[in-house]
Amino acid sequence: MKHQEEIIQEYIYFVTEKKRYPTQFEFEQHTDMERLNFKSNFFSMTELRETVWVYFFDKTITAIQKDVDYNNYSVRNKLLTFYHTWLGILGQNEGYIDFTTKKDSRTFLIPKGSSPFKKKFLNHISNLFYEGYQTGELAKRPIFGEQLKSLFWVELMFILHFWLTDKSEQKTNTNGAIEKSLSFMFDVLGKNALDTGFDFAKFMFQNSRLKNIRNLLKKRM
Known about the structure:
3 domains
């Protein structure tokens, strides 16, 4: 929608500077709402607040897709690129992120109003899962369904929390946290001894069943 990004940026600036959320009336007084036409872009301040998180996500996707080599990355490296790019964009708005997470966060630093962002993020993860199944990077485990994908949302919130509390120079410890958490996730979701054991059991079952069918056919002949 026209002027939507400008409204979002004005809102981020207001919250960062004032360290509080404005009412709609106050925000309209603070900005040139006659020109930006707030009501044509947002139904409420709640919707605007939710859209900020989506805005950061969309900027991340736009940025990583500009990398000409991105499509050739492994699924793991695509996720690694997403996390680093996302944090880079959050870093440009750290004052806003710091305020909103402290003000609104529920259990495990899940920001209030992040549901639309979560939906888009999990859809992104679903696309990467599909790609991972095709390349063999990820093992199919239908029994767990969507729960496995939700683990990446938990990981993302862990990374956000770690990044916000990282006191190391240029937040270098966050890089280690991302690497280790992502390695753990792919150790769990990649093909491992559990999958090999399942494949073996499936093979034995199918061959045993085939043998029983053959024996049954011989008796009837």
